[in-house]
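step: validate -> pass
step: tokenize input -> pass
step: predict -> running
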Amino acid sequence: MTIQELGSLGELIAAIATIATLAYLAVQVRQNSRQVRAQMGHDGWLSTKDDIVAVMSGDAAEALAKAELGGEPLTDGDLLIVDAYFKAIVWHMARVEHINSLDLHIYSVEDTAQAFVHNFNSVAGRAWWESNRALIESMAPEIGTRVAELLAAPGCPSRAESLKEFRQRLDAEQTALPSVS
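step: predict -> pass
step: emit ->
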């Protein structure tokens, strides 16, 4: 083999290596773009969640408590707060489905449905759920279907039951504490 033939072979190997490198970089850029989009969706939910928690004082907290526990009638203002609360949950469920559609499964459908089913298992939650089926089915069809299945299952825990259990445990812990003299 002459020097010229070795040079041509080297150029061929360099060209193949360049193409392979470009293909590898294209795959990496695509994966990174997906991850950035998913993280943006996740961060958007976190900031929205923080905004909701920041508003959860005074009238908003009272409205949600009335809706969860029942007993007291809800005012028009209370209904707006409760509606916004449930829409924020459905919005999060839609974000999870979008992230899952990018094959970046940060949260599973089952975990998300389990996390939110108790929010809808109250008189107000079920009424909101039933009156907003079209919205839920359009925004989060997979998770919405799973939440509906969980709500229909016998023994589905309600938020009020969870709060009563929490209160009982808290009272039991407080009475078990030694008194400070």
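step: describe -> The chain has one domain: 37-173.
step: cleanup -> pass
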